[in-house]
């Protein structure tokens, strides 16, 4: 064997562990992404002259099951990659890459970890490109706090788990098969410019293929594959699945035990040697730090660690336990191989963080049989004859089954819902995968129905009222001839034209891994093949009836067992949890207090198909906003249906259809079908553009444009920018509880107040927003940490969205080449204070300014042009709470450096495309002062309604008198 003298020494594994000093340090990366610098390189074994692997180091996991655990800390400003859609794709490569065990091109047996739109995204590819699968988290981790992450995979069935700070963040069944790096295979040779290496020295050979790279994209393939910037500490890799339930977040470094195959403390504190202290047979799997500045490595060592002043665990090996076969808990969903010898960590205190009481974790593999998990309900039969319901824990409880036949056209979905937690963005009932079906959700506590239409992608209709806590509410959705209405306790929300729905492959009830789980009780779910309700009705007072139009009626009255049956006998039986075995993910039988007793003798509104009034169908105007998700272009988000494997629907995330999440391009909205992401730009977003997500362009949505979403370019998506119906043919109620916009005294400087619920301004596109431009306005938020749309010119696939993502000004744009991209200002806007906000864009680069102070300038690419204007929010994607004043749009980049914030009203000049001063003081419209741009209209219709912003006297410095 030829042993290569690489990285300053012989690469064959030395027999001893590199000595570590007594300092407690972590590693700092800077996201350079070039010239094979600013990263740690961990070889997967010994290499020959052609860079083929001749012997595997213990680090080369993936043949069977494994767990990767690490600590990381990062900020949104340094990791701006937009949210991405999850599921059957390879989109993790577009995030800020933290761990890269990729292989160039379509070769399988590879995986990687990144952060996109603020959410973790883990990609796994056991075979060719037909086995691409990505698993996305739902939590924004770019909060400059230390987080513990555990990734797990089982090769036999492809099951994936993601635990964040001890809590199950996402779970799915991907594709089975070996993930380990193969022996005797030479790396890809795509030729330059690919895999050029430092100074072209690699000559197009992907020499980094047989390495795990930390902190960077291993091939330096270009800026569209960005590298991680932040801190990393205490990486442990194990050859078992360690966790089968939520666990206490560690409070000390990971211990080494018999199943630890690599352990990197990063406590060297100096130099470039990275030592493996696992003591694993065949190791150590030592590595090398490649500094971004060849002159010194000092800037990569930090004393900021997740353990503070805790004692540092030394490199002395912990005695391993004898090889006693392990026994898994009878109700633990993920059972490790029964004969895997493991040692529980006897010396590692795992005290939960004092401020975050989370369920403690049950290690799946220890040398002592696990308890039978008495902490989880065992579904003991309740007294016979009782009216039952199902209680869901808000963590991982789920019901699942195959599709109910007949849900192909007109239909009604109805059930009783009793939430125990406020403002949930979760899946209630979903029949969906990434590309078909529907998801009935709570988006910020409001009942919302997301559908994948055959022509326009993910669309939604929502009820304006949040469900009350600890109270049973009857929730129904009626759909016919392309129009849908959501009813809560018989009270109708707006009727919205969605289009022709598509048919999903399965049923998920109570949540979806990666997209939000419901906390509360559910009772009596009925699915019908007619639109039962076309106008307000009296909510049912007894059990729903079976009739000729009933496709399925699940009464949830068994009271025990692992399944619940359809009372009609026609539809599939539903199963508790992700498997048929008793597990932590099973809902619990409880006595019901909902008015569902009896056999439905009291009939509900006629089952005869109802004919909507001739003027009920509300066809959205041609310019219906499909506003981006509040925080992520990825379509999806917490609310995007991205249903993973056959049994583990990770149906749209609470962040996407996958419309982005709450930080998704605001076209995705904070509320994209939570099966579509809660947060997918969509497709995004808390929701979507669940393609964006909570940090995705709200067109993307609180999960992604829906393709973004407020929680994920669920494109990515918390979701997907879904269109805001601009026109309904039924005037909204005059809503006397809302201000009626009585004219204020003449001569006053006015502004517009938005309620944070449904207030909106809308209009057609402002001509001229095709290249260089500036968007500026005055903003006065009254609620902290909002993820909402301020101003958007977008639909699912074009335009831009200016949003607040967690209170920070963020501009999401749909580019012509790379999809949803974003640039953000690092400072959150102050409350109850006027701030001047401006975005300047030119030659593909954009900068956000707050009160004249510049954020980072970011290369976004060539923007696309949206079809409409939305101001103050977007249905399904988050509405602004506060006041707005004086919006000016220009065809030049007015600001290229810090400036003094304006002290009086903005001026009209030759570069002004529109200037809305909001000074009318009364009425249902507001005009452009230049007379060139379209007039904006209050609310979703021209009639006075609850969704109209309110005229107020302004205290912003916008007066011109």
Automatic annotation (TrEMBL):
LamG-like jellyroll fold domain segment(s): 409-535, 771-897
Location of region: Disordered: 275-375, 582-739
Matching SMART domains: LamG, LamGL
Domain Laminin G: 64-240, 409-530, 771-892
Keyword match Signal: yes
Compositionally biased region (Low complexity): 314-375, 604-722
Pfam families, A to Z: Laminin_G_3
Polar residues biased stretches: 286-306, 723-739
Top-rank lineage group of the source organism: Bacteria
Keyword annotations from UniProtKB, A to Z: Disulfide bond, Signal
Signal peptide: none
Name assigned to this protein: LamG-like jellyroll fold domain-containing protein
